[in-house]
Amino acid sequence: MAQTPNVVPLDGRRARVQRGREAVLDAMLELVVEGRGQPTAADVAERAGVSTASVFRYFDSLADLEQQMAVRYFQAHADLFELDREGEGPLPQRIDRLVKARVRLYGTIAPLARLGRSRAVDNDALDVELRRSRRGLADQVRRHFGPELTHLGRAERDDLAAVLSATVSIEAWDHLRLIHDRTDTQIARAWKHALRTLVPPAG
Predict the structure, then answer these.
(1) In this structure, are 151 and 189 located in the same domain?
(2) Does 34 share its domain with 105?
(3) How buried is 174 (Cβ within 10 angstroms: 0-12 exposed, 13-18 middle, 19+ buried)?
(4) Residue 28: what pLDDT?
(5) Are residues 48 and 119 in the same domain?
(6) Contacts of 47 (CB under 8 A, 6+ apart)
(7) DSSP code at position 183
């Protein structure tokens, strides 16, 4: 009985800390999605309704906050990284499904991806997270077009898989959107044409 008063306050403090961390992560995500560039600790604190000092009580540094934000965001949108019926069906249908999935994914994660690319240079943990995500998408392309790639020699197969992955990458999507003012519909049309041209018939 004597221990009960000590347990409740400890649990309460842990709950408050967890709520504070969640509020800071949510604030950081909101600012990034709104296109605020690289939010400062003060920006995050104001949005979260906490002090700037609290931000650094919950996270070791802004780099730590950025990395954990990326993990949280990718986990929350994990379904968008999946590809329906991966590697199944006729080639035209597989191309259509891949392009549709990638355009939808990039339209959702673009703000975080842009921040990530700019910050990954100085944030090793964030760089690792982004590289893991990119490799996963590249491997997905290789599997999805496995029937067409398997009959090629190793060097040709690796070269083509890399080109296909780059063609439908978020960097390519960003370039088409920001430099060439292409809509998602136009990007999808161009990607489908490119993939139909690049991918050799299976056999």
Answers:
(1) yes
(2) no
(3) middle
(4) 92
(5) no
(6) 27, 30, 31, 39
(7) -
* Shared domain check, 152 and 53: no
Q: How far is it, in rounded angstroms, from Cα 160 to Cα 131? A: 20
Average pLDDT over residues 41-59: 94
Flag whether the pTM goes above 0.90.
Answer: no
Tell me the C-alpha distance between 203 and 200, whole Å: 9
Residue 51 CA from chain centroid, whole number:
29
**Looking at the structure, do residues 130 and 178 belong to the same domain, yes or no?**
yes
Distance between CA 194 and CA 181 in Å, rounded?
Answer: 18
Of 110, 98, 101, the C-alpha closest to 194 is: 98
Assigned domain for 118 exists: yes
Dist. CA 9–CA 4, nearest whole Å: 9
Express each pLDDT in 19-41 by its tens digit.
999 999 999 988 988 876 789 99
Tokens of 126: 């964030």
Nearest Cα to 168, choosing from 196, 139, 199, 195? 195
DSSP 32-99: HHTT-SS--HHHHHHHHTS-HHHHHHHSSSHHHHHHHHHHHHHHHTGGGG--TTTT-S-HHHHHHHHH
Instruction: Report the alpha-carbon distance of residue 64 to residue 38 in Å, rounded.
Output: 14
